[in-house]
Design goal:
There is one protein chain. The protein has 2 domains: about 70 residues; about 120 residues, 2-Layer Sandwich (Alpha-Beta Plaits). The chain is elongated and about 85 Å long. It is built from 6 helices and 8 strands, in the order ααββαββαβαββαβ. The strands form 2 sheets. A 5-stranded antiparallel sheet has the order 3-4-2-5-7. A 3-stranded antiparallel sheet has the order 1-8-6. It has about 260 residues and is α+β, with helices and mostly antiparallel strands. It starts with a helix and ends with a strand.
Amino acid sequence: MRRVRSMILLLLAVSLLPAGPFGASAAGAADDDIVPRLTVRGAAELQVPADRVRFVVGVENEASTTAAALEENSRRLQRVEAALRQAGMEVGEDETALLQVYPVWTQRPQSAPEDWRPRVAGYRAESRLRITTIRLELAGRLIAAAVEGGATGVDDIRFDLAAPRRYRAQAIAVATANARADAEALAAAAGVRLVEVIDLQLDHAQARPLLRQAAELMAAPARADNAGAGAPSLIPGEVTVRAAVIMSCRIAAGHE
């Protein structure tokens, strides 16, 4: 019992000793690590005229065998490609986006017998060409030519930027400048001064392409200019480029 009491007294005595140079309290060390700061978020939104158009043209067909389906699909796709080239498409502006063939099964009739089972009625082949061009004035003619050449569908039409990173960098620069301006205004209102930027993070930056529906474009009034008779009139519009940054600055009392 005496030994336990002695240990308790010893521990109490140690805890009451003043902190020396090597015995600074944890609270004091934590206080030294605190850096007075302010944090702001700067955002920017740029409207940039689209300078590129992309769309996908498709060809679908059915046949009794896979070979026949693929062979017919190849012939139809070649006709579409020829129509696109005649309309002005150049080498390097198209690429194969999809080629597939799969069985087509019979549909279950309403009064099917109990032993009814689906069977292969034929095979369907699908192919897709992705067209990409910076000649926006040609887009309407190419879409019309693809349909006239036998394409069974035109979709995924989007207007975007050929060099999105250049405009992304501009948006980031504007967002950073906005964050700096907000930090200075906040510091002035609080009666403190900015010392230095201690943290800067990119919160968000992207360019959103303009998506258009094929039906919308094909229903647009046709132009009679050099784009070709019957070609839909296309207005590319502007691409929105957004960026945001989070900035933290060390602050000190008083003005500079």
